Amino acid sequence: MDFQAKIRDIEDLIQLTFGEPGFAVDDRIKAVAKVSIGHDRSHYANSQGETNLRRAAVSYFNRHFDIHLDGIDQVLVTQGVSEGINVVFMTILEHGDGVIIPEPSYSPYSTSLALAGGVKVALDTAPDNFKITPASIERAIDQATVPVKAILINYPNNPTGVTYSESELSAIAATLKKHRIWVISDEIYAALTYSGQHSSLYRMLPEQTILLTGLSKSHAMTGYRIGFIFGDAALIKKMLTVHEALAFAVSTLSQDAAFAALTVGEDVPEYALKAYRKRRDRLVKQLKLLGFEPVNPQGAFYVFAKIPAAFGNDGYDFAVRLANQAKVAVLPGEAFSKNAKNYVRISYASSDADLDEALQRMTNYIQEGVDY
Ligand code: PLP
Q1: Which residues lie below 8 Å from residue 25, measured CB to CB, with a gap of 6+?
Q2: Which of 83, 89, 101, 106 best tests ligand 1's pocket when mutated (most atoms within 8 Å of CB)?
Q3: Which of 200, 229, 262 is the last residue of a domain?
Q4: Cβ neighbours of residue 361 under 8 Å, at least 6 residues apart?
Q5: Nearest residue CA, atom 10 of ligand 1?
Q6: Where does residue 289 rank: exposed (0-12), middle (13-18), buried (19+ CB within 10 A)?
Q7: Which of 42, 76, 110, 140: disulfide with 123, CB 3.0–4.6 Å?
Q8: 160 and 294 in one domain?
């Protein structure tokens, strides 16, 4: 049975299941959205993205991702990275084309791929500490039974929090260059990197990479639905046709707010990162004390952890019991990979108060077997 359906009616449940930032949108950004309404910005926006927003995006992401976008024809504004993924798959794939999806991974990728008629070529990262390596990419390409057209890489990763050093990425880039497949790089969590500077695959492989990112995680703007696709101008033009068929354009009000986020709100990710770092450290420390084995999270706001041996090896069963008895909801690892059944994903995006209470309840449940 679907896990969310199974826990839906439990009362007083603390949800550590969502990828929803526990911050309000910055006041400076909200002020711009209000002015937009007052100025009747209620008409169709430029379908590729408002010119000022695309200009701001080129400037912001060239600086923050250390990439070299030449101009606004290399940018497409989408309804979040969610729509962006559909646009990319529907543009580059022919029916039956393979896409390597390293797992564990964000589960909607598989649905988007199926919608576009693509075939998943799964790459299990668990044996390599949840990292993609040149050898595992070679193996996935070798063993694929369909022509491999692309790989979808996500880092910092949901659900593991894993990210890559400059040298790891250049080794991966060299392998991908050799195989000349598209590199779809979902870098939506780039601003939430704890281990120093985020390096973008786009900088290393600009001719092969389609870069996806957005404002949901960095600026806590999930409901505004703002995503960006960056890539070759001719390809962006093809993707625009697909985007126009799917959504036509992104809300004009949201685009105005996004412009504010990339200009006056440039410092927002920094203060969020400080808060998330503290939560991560607290959570990882406590989980280890309780007997979990967490993957070392270097980015995003999730901990992916092997459940304590005393609780068996079924993460689904553990999560159901934790929800019912401790009133804390975490996601079973199998939501992200069939090879991670003894793991759970714990989100620390929600408030400090919720995290404190959840940790207390988990501690009681695991150490003392307290029934709620
Ligand atoms: N990609 C990853 C890896 C995510 O974790 C999420 C949301 O959780 C998304 C994309 C979707 O983001 P958006 O809100 O921009 O559609």
Answers
A1: 219, 220, 221, 224, 257
A2: 106
A3: 262
A4: 14, 326, 327, 328, 372
A5: 81
A6: exposed
A7: 140
A8: no
Q: Relative to the CA of 222, which ligand 1 atom is closest?
A: 14
Nearest atom within ligand 1 for CA of residue 226: 15
Atom of ligand 1 nearest to the CA of 157: 3
Mark whether 238 and 323 lie in a shared domain: no
> What is the per-residue pLDDT across 164-209, written as a single tens digit (0 to 9) for each?
999 999 999 999 999 999 999 999 999 999 987 899 999 999 999 9
Specify whether 205 is located in the same domain as 336. Answer: no
Q: Which domain holds residue 349?
A: 3-19+268-368
- Ligand 1 neighbours, Cβ below 6 Å, are 19, 80-82, 106, 154, 158, 186, 188, 214, 216, 222, 227
CA of 297 to the centre of ligand 1 (A): 18
Mean pLDDT of the chain: 95
Query: What is the rounded average pLDDT of the residues 301-310?
Result: 95
Q: How far is the CA of 204 from the centre of ligand 1 (A)?
A: 23
On whether both 122 and 242 belong to a single domain, the answer is yes
pLDDT bracket for residue 1 (50, 70, 90): low
Q: What is the pTM of this model?
A: 0.96
Residue 272: per-residue pLDDT: 87
* Mean pLDDT of the region 234-258: 98
**pLDDT score, position 197:** 84
| 246 and 189 part of one domain | yes
Of the chain, the end-to-end C-alpha distance in Å amounts to: 23
Q: Do residues 313 and 175 both lie within one domain?
A: no
pLDDT at 216 over 60: yes
Quick one: pLDDT at residue 4? Answer: 86
The predicted-structure confidence for 107-120, as pLDDT tens digits, reads as follows: 999 999 999 999 99
Structural domain tally of the chain? 2
Considering only CA atoms, which of 241, 239, 213 is closest in space to residue 228? 213
Tokens matching residue 371: 């029934």
Residue 371 Cα to ligand 1 middle (Å): 35
- For the CA of 105, the nearest atom of ligand 1: 3
Which pair of structure tokens corresponds to residue 271? 């203060």
> How many Å lie between the centroid of ligand 1 and the Cα of residue 364?
33
- C-alpha separations of 142 from 136, 208, 351, 355 in Å: 10, 20, 45, 44
